[in-house]
């Protein structure tokens, strides 16, 4: 083997050789978001409609459960982010959330971290504070998930997943779910 560009055609020596080094890196890919609205359901029908008003300044917590292939025990729900509903609109927003990127050829709906790029599977839950004198309204009423309430009697949603997909332009796109809402009804004193 001779040295390229050397005038004297000298041989490559052991000192000239470079060994490969392993490089570890974290890959951050496109993220998703969860959000929308908290409201006072004045007609107690479980649906955001005329006459309902925004529930302002309500504490909102986002919990995340991350499953990986290297875990030795069941993953736990951990508080991930907190905010409050907007003072005017009753809206909230959590962004920069890791999404699940299913490997090609793997079964849609899988919860196995091995089936996802990065060997991790993410789930989220949103917990809304319930104002004094109120309770959660009817859950998941009607056909339109964008205008219902998603919380149980404790103010917590079912687990939510966000997918990472490839759009028509060939770019990665994180799922945005702007349909996670909380509706409240006034408690009535029966005594």
How much of the sequence lies in strands comes to 25-35%
Calculate Rg over CA atoms. Answer: 25 Å
Number of helices: 0
The whole-number mean of residue pLDDT values reads 90
Q: Mind describing the biggest β-sheet? A: 6 strands, mixed
Binned, the helix content reads under 10%
Number of strands: 11
Describe it for me?
- By secondary structure, this protein is mainly beta.
- Helices cover 0% and strands 31% of the residues.
- The chain contains no helices and 11 strands.
Question: How does the SSE layout of this entry go?
Answer:
Elements: E1 32-40, E2 53-54, E3 59-68, E4 78-84, E5 91-97, E6 120-128, E7 134-136, E8 164-166, E9 172-174, E10 176-177, E11 182-186
Parallel strand pairs: 1-10, 1-11
Antiparallel strand pairs: 1-2, 1-5, 3-4, 3-6, 7-11, 8-9
Task: Provide a short characterization of the protein structure.
Helix content is 0%, strand content 31%. It is mainly beta and 191 residues long.
């Amino acid at each position: 083997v001779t040295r390229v560009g050397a005038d004297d055609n000298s041989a490559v020596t052991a000192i000239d050789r470079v060994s490969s080094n392993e490089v570890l890196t974290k890959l951050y890919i496109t993220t998703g978001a969860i959000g929308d609205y908290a409201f006072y359901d004045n007609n107690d029908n479980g649906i955001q409609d005329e006459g309902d008003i925004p529930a302002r300044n309500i504490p909102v917590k986002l919990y995340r459960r991350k499953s990986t292939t290297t875990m030795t025990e069941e993953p736990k729900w951990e508080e991930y982010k907190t905010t409050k509903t907007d003072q005017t609109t009753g809206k909230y927003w959590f962004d920069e959330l890791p999404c699940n990127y299913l490997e090609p050829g793997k079964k849609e709906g899988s919860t196995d971290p091995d089936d996802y790029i990065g060997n991790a599977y993410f789930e989220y839950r949103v917990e809304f504070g319930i104002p004094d004198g109120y309770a959660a309204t009817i859950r998941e009423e009607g056909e339109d998930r964008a205008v219902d309430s998603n919380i149980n009697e404790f103010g917590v949603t079912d687990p939510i997943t966000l997918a990472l997909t490839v759009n028509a332009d060939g770019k990665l796109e994180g799922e945005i779910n702007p349909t996670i809402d909380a509706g409240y009804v006034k408690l009535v004193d029966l005594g």
